[in-house]
Amino acid sequence: MFKKILIANRGEIACRVAATARRMGIQTVAVYSDADAQAPHVRACDEAVHIGPADPKDSYLQWERILAAAEKTGAQAIHPGYGFLSENAAFAKACEAVGVTFIGPSPAAIEAMGLKAQSKRLMAAAGVPLVPGYHGDNQDPGYLKSQADAIGYPVLVKASAGGGGKGMRIVSSSDAFLDALQACKREALNSFANDDVLIEKYVQRPRHIEIQVFGDTQGNLVHLFERDCSVQRRHQKVLEESPAPGLTPEMREAMGQAALAAARAVHYVGAGTVEFIVEQPANGEMDFFFMEMNTRLQVEHPVTEAITGIDLVEWQLCVANGESLPCDQSDIRMHGHAIEARICAENPQQQFLPATGTVMRLALPACAQFTVAPIRWDSGVTQGDRISPHYDSMIAKLIVHGETRSQALALMDQALSETHIVGLHHNVHFLRALVNGPSFKTADLDTSLIERDAAHLFAANRLPVHWWAAGALVALIASEQSVVKGHPWLAADGWQPMGGATRHLHVTAPTDLQVAFWVPSEPGCLRFQLDALHEVSWVPLAQDSWRITVDGVQQTLRLVPCRSGVTVFMREGSVDVTIQDPLNGAFGVDAVAGGLTAPMPGKVVALRVAVGDRVAAGDVLAVMEAMKMEHTILAPGAGVVTDVFFQLGEQVAEGDALLQLESES
Ligand code: MV4
Q: From the CB of 235, is ligand 1 less than 6 Å away?
């Protein structure tokens, strides 16, 4: 076996490969860009080599530097992960040329599957079912129209060089064909500098089902069943599962055999995936057609690992080392049901726009104690990391494995409810709505599921106000006690030795409301007035986790203070509560830390204090401007300004310390 391998990737897949290498006693070398100097994948490997600036084209796609790093460290093989160089035949050849093993298929197999029309002709010759269509060289518009007429409408015109849904046009009648063809060719020329098209019968209500295959250098080939990846948005997978719901054993066998025929046709070695589009007629048998073969390990491979118990990266390493597959088809069994959710930095409320920012808080689902944890968290992001715009927006993959699909669904819901992320937009709530939504729950799957369930998926989550208000109160009181180190006489919070003082709190989000509450007469409990009078008591657990009782019902809440309030996480979901405390001005992290940081990148347009000034809670300290909006920085409590770290007119970054305030004592 290899003594040392280089991992030519970053993020979760680099960490994933490193984990198996470590388990096998193989040393690992990471490569990293400027943006990734402190990244988890660097720490996950034994050695690391810097390969250039943040932009992937200057680092992770620079094969000369990667090959130089392999030579310098003595790595005998290179694992390309997915994306980047994983399906680059020229890179695979370059590895061979310098005597480093490329952990993947042959350059010829990568090339053969890389071109759409060509791979489809190859598959047709190998007897793999294709969508009825025309994949030939004759691009004469009149000829293409006659082909479309023969196939029958609706047809799909696809750019031969396209992918990921780009350059596709549905044509519903013969009359509309020539105009649509022209438009498709124009788009293809602009996007791919090649205006060849192919024509296919349009498959309605399609499902995306793919088969995992594995080959070795001895010519053995096996498949590891299927994954259903129908839940997508903008051609990005969101949920993947195995087995595919409703797939009959006969169809599974037929698809497995078709995938093996596809792999055999290109003498496939290593891990690969054969993608099929599956037609679901309103009544009648499902039909499947070859779409493309991905000549790499895929993002969603963990669901296959869960149901087969096979470590696919271990198999990749053994096969690349020239060993034959450890078992044959009849030894490969599936057990239970696995689902993967991709947790991404993005805003589902704004067309899933990728989000950037710092992961201020990241709490993982609790490991199920007293059992073998059926939950897997694959991630290359840790708390405090920045999600930069240079790379993809995936924060983690969450994989659950149950005996049945409904058990897996329940586990996924539970694990997502315990996944707490603060600091940037993410899709955790959206994923939860998705797995609990009408279509996914009943396995009514096709590629337009997200659009169909939109009303359910994008609805604002309604959480019980007395619970999140209670969480906000507990966070507020905890922060005040930490500022004054628990001394009640020094707190400017209206506390009276006899108890009974009333405070009013203005909560502005998610709903505008006034909360009246009575200052605690004994520690750890108080009453508050909303629609009715409520009673809350609390006990701190670890870190920001609290056991809270509201009106006699107890649950664990996570309370994460942020700039202007607190994020309250509970079983049903989370809310960002913005608190305006008339007594105390701003509330949040700043108040807890005693230092004051910039809430966003911007310019300091007013500075109202100097070192030595005495300020009261709520006094204006400075004013910042960003995106044409002014933000006022208030004193979180009474104190003396001991340091000012910036000047008027200065540009500051998000999170920069602005000034230091010391509470008076
Ligand atoms: C299709 C199709 C319907 N009929 N081909 C989208 C991306 C590209 N890889 C192939 N795609 C499709 N090809 C025929 N003949 C519908 C899609 C399609 C799709 C396929 C798989 C997963 C998600 C999809 C979302 C929209 C359209």
A: yes
C-alpha angle 160/164/169, rounded to 5°?
A: 60
Q: In the annotation, is 296 catalytic?
A: yes
Instruction: Please report the pLDDT score of residue 50 as a whole number.
Output: 98
Q: Which of 65, 296, 342, 361 is catalytic?
A: 296
215 versus 371: which is more confidently predicted?
A: 215
Res. 233: pLDDT tops 80: yes
Residue 599 structure tokens: 């809430």
Q: Could you tell me the two tokens for 664?
A: 């008076």
Mean pLDDT of 358-381: 83
What is the distance in angstroms between the CA of the first residue and the CA of the last residue of the chain? 66
* Ligand 1 center from residue 347 Cα (angstroms): 24
Positive or negative, the CA dihedral 243, 247, 252, 258 is: negative
222 C-beta closer than 6 A to ligand 1 = no
Q: Residue 631 in contact with residue 600, Cβ under 8 Å?
A: yes
pLDDT value, residue 372 = 57
Q: Are 412 and 396 in contact (CB under 8 A)?
A: no
For residue 548, pLDDT beyond 60: yes
Topology of domain 132-201 in CATH is Dna Ligase; domain 1 (3.30.1490)
Query: Is the domain defined by 465-580 classed in CATH 3.30.700.30?
Result: yes
